[in-house]
Design a protein that fits this description.
By secondary structure, the chain is mostly helical. It is built from 2 helices and 2 strands. It has one domain. It binds iron/sulfur cluster.
Length: 67
């Protein structure tokens, strides 16, 4: 979602009223999450779900193989 189309956007201050970040590109979303954390990224951001899934997949501990 574009911030300008969102009811939480403050056009006078030109920023999100909730203080969220809405990076347009996935690479920017990754970098934003690395610096500010995933919670800083807007719920409506197009890349948020992919980012969370990627982080969950890489941080889930795997069971050791028992053969
Ligand atoms: S960051 Fe998200 S909640 Fe904030 S104005 Fe933009 S779209 Fe809306």
């Amino acid at each position: 979602m574009y911030c300008q189309d969102c009811p939480r956007y403050d056009p006078d201050a030109r920023r999100c009223r909730d203080g969220k970040l809405n990076p347009a590109r996935y690479s920017d979303a990754v970098e934003t999450a690395n610096v500010f954390g995933v919670r800083a990224i807007c719920m409506y951001n197009d890349h948020r779900q992919r980012l969370i899934q990627t982080r969950t997949a890489t941080s889930t501990p795997t069971r050791p193989n028992r053969t």
